[in-house]
Design brief:
It is a single chain. This protein folds into three domains: 245 residues, Rossmann fold (3-Layer(aba) Sandwich), CATH 3.40.50.300; 134 residues, no CATH class; 53 residues, no CATH class. The chain has 22 helices and seven strands. The chain has a seven-stranded parallel sheet, sandwiched between helices. The longest helix is centred in the first third of the chain and has 26 residues. The N and C termini lie far apart (87 Å).
Length: 554
């Protein structure tokens, strides 16, 4: 009557605007055995009836429908297989999501009947007893549905007052709460929001608006969450197509809800191939010896290789993407699509490669953060998130890769920074890492001694940044940079001696000048400065101090 819509704000535009995230669809069918007199249409009809709820007054009318679903979807052998698959899938999925939301996040499991929900809970906690707790405020998994005290076992086990169910719902909204999984029948499928909720395990047929509203439980934005995931154990593809047909033509094409996870799997394979080409300059697999430490050492060495200015591809022309930046971009994309598709058995052979590329991404972020910190620049949120994960993983595993060990040099104290140390550092297996390590040490020490003098701190930072820029532009060799870094530290200590020993009249008092000359000589000897160059160095320092005398005396 009024013509076409002038404008339609559909699901696709909501995703494009960042209001929601796309939802991928992963079918993981668990075989069901249908009785001779039960068809798939009968199951769909029974599910429609059950979806109406279990109001006490209607219980007799839908009892037969519930029995059909219990007999098919609730068969003991099937529930046992279902529980094992959900546990395995979730443990993998929660680990991958840590990279994006700094927490495992939350998942919802949708069962066909209350009896199935209760029995599935029993099967899951049989596999993971530590997930269970009788206390309302504890436990990693809970069941939520409506009921009355007269309900039969095992249904009544999870029947609670409405206020108690509300407490469970609130726990699922709280990212730091240990609750991760909630099993429901139809409660919480509509009108409930939990931003950390990113995965939905669906083990019942759903249709139309209820299906789309259920999918919307996992399309909420949260931190760096890129996608929601619908894991389906019941036949759903046809119902999903029909439900999408009710939405805009654009949504039917882009599928912001219900994208096939095979798309993510194909992109994952492509990204792994591209990253393997980027990393071809260093044979990382040859560095693995079966121990966890070898993975981290290999990843650290690859990060060093990719960030080195002289690595082919890093001397790109203006406007072209450097090799290390291309790795950062593609490895970030891989992390996103792997988080969605890692449950696919077709990608099992890629797990070692994906694990390695992710380790390299994390260590590159660590080195990037050190570089930015030395320049006094803020660290981007994404790098902070990766560093948080690195600390968490190191704490959990007890394994921490020492950057000095990875560089092939002993960890120095400031007293070790002598000219002979420069030769050892320059000859290290990974001199670029040696440079990063020394820069980190000098930045930390400079910040400590000049924290009350921002001008001095900035001057030191600028000089360090300029030195590293020359190295990046290949104007200096590794050996030259290491030597200059050590000379910067010696100069910093000479300045400290000067500020400690000078007095207002030191330039005219021979005894004070002699003491100062002696202090400078002791420092140069301590640092093993070449003896034949010491007199010239002392004379140069004294002259420099005289030119700055008035400023420092004040």
């Amino acid at each position: 009557m009024f013509g076409d819509y002038i404008d339609v704000y559909d699901l696709g535009r909501a995703v494009a605007d960042g209001a929601t995230v796309p939802v991928y669809f992963e079918p993981r069918l668990v075989k069901v055995g249908l009785a001779p007199d039960v068809s798939e249409e009968d199951i769909d009809a029974a599910a429609d009836e059950a979806a109406l709820g279990l109001d006490v007054a209607e219980r007799e009318r839908i009892e037969q429908s519930v029995a059909v679903i219990n007999a098919v979807y609730g068969a003991p052998a099937r529930l046992k297989a279902l529980a094992a698959d959900i546990v395995e899938h979730w443990e993998r999925r929660r680990t991958e999501m840590l990279k994006f939301i700094e927490a495992p996040g939350k998942a919802m499991i949708v069962g066909g009947t209350r009896e199935i929900c209760a029995n599935l809970y029993a099967e899951i906690v049989a596999l993971r007893p530590q997930w269970h707790s009788e206390a309302l405020e504890k436990g990693r998994i809970k069941v939520v549905y409506s009921g009355v005290p007269s309900d039969p076992m095992p249904i009544v086990t999870h029947v609670r007052r409405e206020s108690e169910n509300a407490a469970v719902k609130e726990r699922l909204r709280t990212v730091d709460d240990e609750l991760e999984l909630v099993i429901v029948k139809d409660m919480m499928l509509t009108g409930y929001d939990s931003q950390p909720l990113h995965t939905l395990y669906l083990d019942r047929p759903l249709k139309g608006a209820l299906l789309m509203q259920t999918l919307a439980r996992v399309n909420r934005t949260y931190r760096s969450k890129e996608d929601g995931l619908l894991v389906v154990y019941a036949p759903l593809a046809e119902n999903l197509e029909k439900a999408l047909a009710e939405y805009s033509p654009g949504d039917q094409v882009t599928k912001p809800m219900g994208r096939d996870v095979d798309e993510a799997a194909a992109l994952t394979q492509q990204l792994v191939d591209k990253l393997a080409t980027i990393c071809a300059g260093f044979n990382w697999k040859a560095a693995l010896d079966g121990r966890p430490q070898s993975w981290m050492r290999a990843a650290t060495r690859m990060a060093d290789h990719l960030r080195r200015p002289d690595t082919p591809g890093n001397n790109a022309a203006e406007g072209e993407e450097r090799l290390d930046d291309r790795f950062r971009r593609l490895s970030g994309q891989l992390a996103r699509f792997w988080a969605v598709s890692s449950g696919s058995e077709t990608l099992a052979h890629l797990r070692p490669d994906v694990k390695f590329f992710e380790e390299v991404r994390v260590y590159m972020a660590k080195l990037d953060a050190e570089e930015r910190r030395s320049r006094g620049e803020p660290i981007p949120e994404e790098i902070q998130r990766l560093l948080s994960r690195l600390v968490a993983e190191a704490t959990e595993s007890g394994e921490i890769v020492d950057i000095y060990e990875a560089a092939g040099i002993p960890k120095p104290s400031l007293m070790d920074l002598r000219p002979d140390f420069a030769a050892r550092a320059a000859a290290a297996p990974n001199p670029h890492l040696a440079i990063e390590a020394l820069r980190a040490l000098l930045t930390e020490e400079s910040g400590a001694v000049s924290r009350h003098n921002m001008v001095r701190q900035r001057a030191f930072s600028d000089r360090l940044t300029g030195l590293m820029r020359k190295y990046t532009n290949q104007q200096l060799t590794s050996a030259e940079v290491i030597a200059e870094l050590i000379e910067m530290e010696i100069a910093r200590e000479l300045l400290a001696v000067m500020r400690r020993d000078i007095k207002t009249d030191w330039t005219v008092r021979d005894d004070v000048r002699a003491k100062l000359r002696s202090s400078i000589k002791r420092l140069l000897v301590l640092r093993k400065y070449p003896p034949d160059r010491q007199p010239e160095a002392i004379k140069l320092v004294i002259e420099q101090m005289e030119s700055m005398a008035l400023r420092y005396a004040a």
